Amino acid sequence: LPPFLRKQWYQRRVAITAGEVLRMRRHRQYQHDLHEPIITLYLSLCVELKKGHAAKEGLYQYKILTQNTDINSLEKVIRRFVQTAENRAEEASKEAKSSKGDMADVEDLDMLYTPESLMLSTVSGEDDQDRADRTVLTPWVKFLWEVYRHVLDILKNNNKVEKLYQDMAQLAFTFCIKYERKTEFRKLSDSVRNHLNLIIKHSHQANSINLNDPVSLQLHLDTRLYQLDCAIKISLWQEAIKTINDIHSLMQLSKKKPKPQALANYYKKQALVFSKANNRLFEACALMKHYQLVFDQKKTATVEEKQMLASGVLMATLAIPLPASMSENEKYLDLQNSTKDKNMTLASYLDLQHAPTRETLIADIVKQGIPGKVYPELQPLFKILEVDFQPLKLCSLVDTMLKEVEKTYPDLTSYAEDVREVAVLRLMRQLAQVYDKISISKVVSLIPYIEPLELELLIIEPAKTLDLQLRIDHSTQTFIFGSTIQYQREETTSGPTVQQMPSEMFRNQLVLLYNALNKSVDLISPAMKVQAKEGLRHESISAYMKSAKRDQQNMIKRKEMIEKRKKYRLRLCVDTTA
């Protein structure tokens, strides 16, 4: 045999022999000086031969030997084994002169070669670097992934190695970040989630983890928070939402809340996930929760830090799109909508009893005094958008202020575009209160950052949902405000107002007229109302008398049927017992 094949053959024979020694019955009595060197040699040979399953079998046998006698030895052996595998993967990466991004071509480490990839490799060129990645780096990365997976499977639901399990899980998530392994990250998240379900399901077994213990629960929360951070770094937003759900479930199991620092980090990460989902409403809620925790618990927070947090809360709240008003019928129909259930679920992640709205958040930031605690450049913004009624200056003031903010505070630039859109809708609502008709060119001149087509696209949806009482007349190039009596909105819109819309005043006048006429009839002819009630009473009595005898007989028959069924069931029970 060639020298390198002869070396591999000897290594395999030694590994097989060491594995047989660990499985022998006469060696079931643990001896530190005997078994630890054997398992160390065995695992080092498994690393050299890249035999992940063989290493798992050896570790399982060693766990049986040591978990009741010398658990520290098991921990030391596993840490050394994982460190050796990591070092070999790092050496392979340096030898292949490859970066972590070069592994992105391998979609799944559990399936290195697919029929499609083999067919593609026969017709495409392969340079030396690609060949080095395929023959040197990829096998070691795959082996390292197997090591993490097998180690976590061995250590699951064991309170004696709980800290080691959490450390290995965090190392596995770090591996996914280092080599940009999205598929493996999903599999790892599912495995950790299944292990948690096993803990809950088999909590009565010996050596099982007790999640009612604050220390154990904190270890799990720390791992989930690190998992959430890794999911954000690798841009797996669906996994981030699942991790938030896992963290929320763990918090529900605890009798007391987690540490304020961990909770603040959790809310901060939630805000980032909601931001990527373009959900400004829950992003603002998460930032508000984070701000309240920092303001109440962190006594060493500086004025600049509080200003930064308050500014983020204010901008996120003002960037929430203006909601459409709904009639009572629409509210009832919306109860059947899955969106409401989804909002309630997201609200529970933030420890809220009810789904938030833009109005409730505005009320909260006013109660907290946040508009006065933001950066000086932002302090007038809330008053301009939510308090003052100045349609001719609104958008120009907001645009000037946001340009200054974008130059000075780059972290807040992501909210600027949404705030500008909210300012446009505020402007249209205010114009509708003072104008019957206005030219499109005049409105565009009031908005320095928008074109006519963009303006029409922005207001078409609010006009369609009747949130804006507006029609566009392209023949005269004008906006026509107001609507007919068919306008059925029953809620008052938020924001500054000076008077009701004509349709609202018309509808209110009709309601007042109806109530006044009813009162007039009662005053002019009070006997008419009494006679109507008396006639209705007589009709009800006559209808009852017509069907009373039939209804009574049906009730008697129903009672007899129930008694027969009771006797039949009792007889069946007696026969079964006999």
Summarize the structure.
With 578 residues, the chain is mostly helical. The chain has helices at 3-23, 32-49, 52-66, 71-96, 115-123, 128-155, 162-178, 182-201, 214-233, 237-253, 260-276, 280-297, 303-318, 328-334, 338-349, 358-368, 379-386, 394-408, 416-434, 440-446, 452-464, 502-524, 526-577; strands at 437-439, 470-473, 478-481. The longest helix has 52 residues, at 526-577.
Oligomerization status of the protein chains: single chain
Proportion of residues in extended strands: under 5%
User: What count of helical segments does DSSP give?
Assistant: 23
User: Which of globular, elongated, flat, extended, rod-shaped describes the shape?
Assistant: flat
Structural class: mainly alpha
- Measure the end-to-end span: 79 Å
Set out the fold topology.
Layout: H1 3-23, H2 32-49, H3 52-66, H4 71-96, H5 115-123, H6 128-155, H7 162-178, H8 182-201, H9 214-233, H10 237-253, H11 260-276, H12 280-297, H13 303-318, H14 328-334, H15 338-349, H16 358-368, H17 379-386, H18 394-408, H19 416-434, E1 437-439, H20 440-446, H21 452-464, E2 470-473, E3 478-481, H22 502-524, H23 526-577
Antiparallel strand pairs: 1-3, 2-3
Helix pairs in contact: 1-2, 2-3, 2-4, 3-4, 3-6, 4-6, 6-7, 6-8, 7-8, 7-9, 9-10, 9-11, 10-11, 11-12, 12-13, 13-16, 18-19, 22-23
Please characterize this protein's 3D structure.
The chain has a three-stranded antiparallel beta sheet with strand order 1-3-2. It has 23 helices and three strands. Helix 4 packs antiparallel against helix 6 (128-155) and helix 9 runs parallel beside helix 11. It is 71% helix and 2% strand. With 578 residues, it is mainly α. It is flat. It starts with a helix and ends with a helix. It has helices at residues 3-23, 32-49, 52-66, 71-96, 115-123, 128-155, 162-178, 182-201, 214-233, 237-253, 260-276, 280-297, 303-318, 328-334, 338-349, 358-368, 379-386, 394-408, 416-434, 440-446, 452-464, 502-524, 526-577, and strands spanning 437-439, 470-473, 478-481. The longest helix is centred in the C-terminal third of the chain and has 52 residues, at 526-577.
